[in-house]
Amino acid sequence: MVKLGLIQTIQYSTNQKGISRVSQILKKLGKNETEIVCLPEQWLKKNKFSDFDLEFSDFKKIAKDYSMTIIPGAFYEITKKTTSIIAPVIGPEGEFIGRQEKIHPFDYERDTVNPGKEAKIFNTACKFGLIICYDMVFPQVANTLVKKGAQVLLSPSRIVRRGIEPWKMYVQVRALENRIPILAANMQNRRFGGNSIIVDLSENNKVMTTKITKLTGESQISKEFSLDKYTKSRKIRFRDSNKFR
Fold this sequence. Notes:
Elements: E1 2-8, H1 15-31, E2 36-38, E3 48-49, H2 52-55, H3 57-65, E4 69-71, E5 75-78, E6 83-90, E7 96-101, E8 121-123, E9 127-130, H4 139-147, E10 152-156, H5 164-178, E11 182-185, E12 197-204, E13 207-214, E14 219-225, H6 231-239
Parallel strand pairs: 1-2, 2-4, 3-5, 9-10, 10-11
Antiparallel strand pairs: 1-14, 5-6, 6-7, 8-9, 11-12, 12-13
């Protein structure tokens, strides 16, 4: 069993206040023995960084104190040469252990953001992959991560209110296609629609359905998963796929 968590954020007046408030929530999840936690994309007041270590030093300490993996969200990383959208991963020893680049920049982002070239697997409490917001639209991202060995998918997202219903459909379909649970975090304010969701799966006589848990307002949730139970169904699903052109 592994215990996985989501945090749904709201609007914070400064980065400092946002980090302080979410640090309190992370500590609650840590005390509840949550092993991996995911936050939304670009949930802070200012979301362009050049030094993730400096910005998320408080989160690194919390990760170490509670032996917890934290995905702080996904943010612009600006260097002299490139601009990317990065989801950094803080491991249970309190250090950054890797990063996932956004593979499909959305609309206006394409003018400045370099797309990521690789879907990566991280291995702490379990093997997991990250799908950053718009990457959920493209089936190959989730499928590639699962075929590389991901046992669960986590998604830092930033979805406007009018996009919530199709987004929830995308998340459910990716879970069904790949026979894998997905935890997708969103922020909630006047523009962004919240509804962060955990999509679990239930099988009855060879028919797979989704079990949805969603969040409202500023909130958090943790849920235990027995990830091995999806393995057989996933193997059957991939085995049944035929090549065609």
